[in-house]
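#struct-pred

JT: dropping the chains for the assembly here, can someone run the whole complex?
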Amino acid sequence: MNLHEYQAKELLRKFDLPIPSGKFFQNNLKDIDLGVDFLKGPPWVVKSQIHAGGRGAGYFASSVNNKGGVQIAYTKDEVKYLTNAMLNNNLITKQTGEKGKKVSRIYVEEICDIHREYYLSFLIDRKTSQLMLMISASGGIDIESVAEKNPEKIHKIFFSDFDSFDIPNELEKLLNFNQNQFCQFKIIIEKLGRAFISLDASTIEINPLVINKSGNLLLLDAKIALDDNALFRHPEYLQLRDTSEENEMELEASKNDMNYIKLDGEIGCMVNGAGLAMATMDIVKQFGKEPANFLDLGGTANKERTTKGFKIIQSDPNVKSVLINIFGGIIHCDMIANGIIDAIKELNYKLPVVVRFQGTNASEGKNIINKSSLGLVSIDDLTEAAKKVVDLASK
Ligand code: GDP
Ligand code: MN
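RK: done, full complex below.
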């Protein structure tokens, strides 16, 4: 689950990290005058809140003034003007795709005089199964191009023991810190490391971490992703979820206990079991097309869930053909067959569908598919089924 910047900062403040004060506005715009009075300033920084980076360098669909999603306001009137212009406007950044994301929350923050910008992130490194800190003195907006062109400028430190987050001394020079700043840096890393563990985060990214003109370190931006599988340990964080930021189909699937992830290809895939779903996607790719989605119906799928799952995958306009790959175990292939047929009839679905059944009641399932006279293709062999579905998508 991704958090907005203002939410991330609120959580991190509890770990006593140095973060500028700010106020968040959504439905309380009439409080801007009062709210801003609580903050040091003018000037203030007005920040669009969306679940995507690159806001500073982004632009709005209906232009505010072409200065992007993070702007400085020198008067209260300017705070109000910028807030109104940004709200309900689509902000387009490197990470949003060309339609951008609608801004419905604004964060106004005390300004900071930046001397230097660093990039910092904590994440789980899958290769080593360790907590990894990435830090670079080339921080600020475009860390992706640093990673591409000068990967040596990004330093990686691994932690296997979560009691201490020790930093090697050579980083003081490598990162151009003086002694006092390095000391502040070590304290920040210690606190962020503890925050990462205690929040059950999967990523914390601070870009930029800055040194201000007085020589102090501050967290100027914060992005946190929480580990969904650990959310049951933190029911209080569920209210931080902003479903308007999530893919509609993914949301609908999760409401129905299915795991759907939208992808960019043309072959809709409906499978039971995550491993089989991955293998199905691999074999589709092998025959030259990309899967349109990952969908795991789950081990306890029933007829209704099958119908729902089919409706979800076909609602993606990129889908040209559908491959259904079911290994009957606890779930019975004939029940799945009836679910598919219900969905196809209800939707009057016309695109090609290839069905592959194996396991419990596979032959009963195939009979139902073959007798349906809906033009569904039933194939036993996965390789043949994948070839066929790719072939049908190309017609
Ligand atoms: P992002 O573009 O989505 O990563 O949003 P950020 O919160 O990182 O803001 C983008 C950029 O705006 C930062 O990299 C800073 O250079 C700048 N910025 C943000 N807050 C301040 C501030 O208080 N003072 C100044 N001078 N610049 C700021
Ligand atoms: Mn940033």
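JT: nice. The chain has a mean pLDDT of 93. Residues 53, 207, 221 surround manganese (II) ion (ligand 2) (CB under 6 Å).
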